[in-house]
């Protein structure tokens, strides 16, 4: 291989590696400092099957460390078929305090548990909340 071709190859490889590195650092910067916190509703226990649970409230903190309003949050049941539970709100927008909420209608029998996954759309942030129906 001639020195000129080797030089071109190394230059292109360096540019490619530089672009890949820039993309990774931009992704890291895009998620750096953001947080998704469960404010209320984790590990709640409902008294009866089919009963309405308390609020499940999360707060989204933006990169600047302050609550982020206007962000879309998705709530989904990870075990809907097994638990028989239902969510009242599946998509919400954070308010001025960066908070979004939903409620759950309890599982279809005593002793079951519902697992709610919460995601801030457009980010890699997610968390899980568990809601149980008491045993008989």
Description of the molecule:
This protein is an alpha+beta fold. A 5-stranded mixed beta sheet has the order 2-10-9-4-6. Strand 9 and strand 10 (126-133) form a beta hairpin. The chain contains 2 helices and 10 strands; from the N terminus they run αββββαββββββ. Helix content is 24%, strand content 35%. Mean pLDDT is 82; it is low at 12-29.
What features would you highlight for this structure?
single chain, 136 residues, alpha+beta, five-stranded mixed beta sheet, three-stranded antiparallel beta sheet, 2 helices, 24% helix, globular
Low-confidence stretches: 12-29
Share of β-strand residues: 35-45%
Give a short account of the largest sheet.
5 strands, mixed
Beginning-to-end CA distance, first to last residue:
78 Å
Helix content estimate: 10-25%
**Please, what is the oligomeric state?**
single chain
Strand order of the largest sheet: 2-10-9-4-6
Mean pLDDT: 82
Instruction: Return the structural class.
Output: alpha+beta
- Overall outline: globular
Taking Cα atoms only, what radius of gyration do you get, to the nearest Å?
A: 22 Å
Blueprint (SSEs and pairs):
Blueprint: H1 3-31, E1 35-40, E2 44-46, E3 56-61, E4 72-77, H2 80-83, E5 86-87, E6 91-93, E7 99-102, E8 104-105, E9 113-120, E10 126-133
Parallel strand pairs: 2-10
Antiparallel strand pairs: 1-3, 3-7, 4-6, 4-9, 5-8, 9-10
